[in-house]
Amino acid sequence: MFNATERSSRNLLAFAIALFIFLVSLANPIIAQDWPQWQGENRDGTWNETGTLKKFPSDGPKILWRTPIANGFAGPAVAGDRVYVFDFEMLEGDATPNPGKKSEVKGRERLHCLDAKTGKQIWVQPYDCQYKLSYPNGPRSTPTVDGDRVYTLGAEGNLYCFNTENGDIIWNKDLKKEYNLELAPHWGFASHPLIDGDKLFCLSGIDNCVVVAFDKMTGKELWKSLSAKSQGYCPPTIIEAGGTKQLLVWHPESLNSLNPDDGSLYWSVAMEPAYEMSIIAPIHYQDYVYAAALQGTSVLLKLDNDKPAVTEVWRGHGVHPDHNPPLVVDDCIYGVDEQGHLRCIDLQTGDRKWEALATATNERPANSTTGFIVKNNDHFYIMTEQGILIIAEFSPEAYKELDRAKILEPTSRTSNRNVVWSHPAFAHKCMFARNDKEIVCVSLAAESDSNGK
User: Global pTM?
Assistant: First the structure.
């Protein structure tokens, strides 16, 4: 037993330690939130950074740096003091887009690692690659950073694991060759690799291998599951529901829930989008899953509370984007429809509450119009396909625009216009966005924090 003097000494020591920890925490504020993969830390399009602006400075957005890169639809990822961006250096061929035809081009896919503060290149890792795709503009999938490794999936199915420190290749696979695909999907491999625990999930083939789980450290196949006429383009998604972790995989025939440990099927719901364009990751919100695609394809499912199962609530309503994910906030679905209408949809009924043409090209509807929405506390950032960043507030009653500014030139050619079809990253009180010529870092720090980056 301790005597009174010993107890007093121990109490003083404990108090001193607690005081030291408190003072250190004041001197070293919480590290800014990273954006280490597509759609952010939790793949939900939510950015929890504070001290961000709601209106641009009078002289326009503060551009911190611009760095030249080449073609690609893949968004940047930010982890720690580094930015990872994936591009395609075209060396031979014609990349003029034709939605119904595959074009052949030759070049190199390249993963760039940049300094987040300056944009200067730390390393680059290229490899030769030949495309035979519709829209052969470059890779589609955002890099996925996990600890000291970064994973990329190229447009022709080249899956790589790199060392984040120096770009060394740890392992790589040719998914077309390994899973017996004669050709890549029409618009290329586009599903962003997903890490969960010790597994990497990836859409890989069609015959009992639509989705494959790999050991993330070695690339060894752990299991494969599902057969379909096409793998589609939709990223795998992990959710927790019914007391069970579930892996959601939407291919062009059905939305499926799998056991992520072994790939066995929990439930499946028929859902067939036009042109096999299962693209948008299913959105998990409270007890619901919402999935949608162009031309009126959509479904709202109610998740069972006790087991992995679902009940259909409604179908065919809502917002129907081409390849830009909506968000669900306070029982409202906010998203950009395929014609460019920014819409608010009642989650419970699928009824439209309002729509605006804020994200439309030249303020008029156009096919496959894209707008990437990110929620930041009580406001939203929207990057339009014309390279314009909008700051806005959404509510069930109305859309309120706070400001807008041109950030990038649209450089990717679609059927009738140039576009920016790449989801930006938000980290370190900045937005990191790219087109086919450059990646740019824009400060979004409020004036009082503008010197604190």
Answer: 0.91
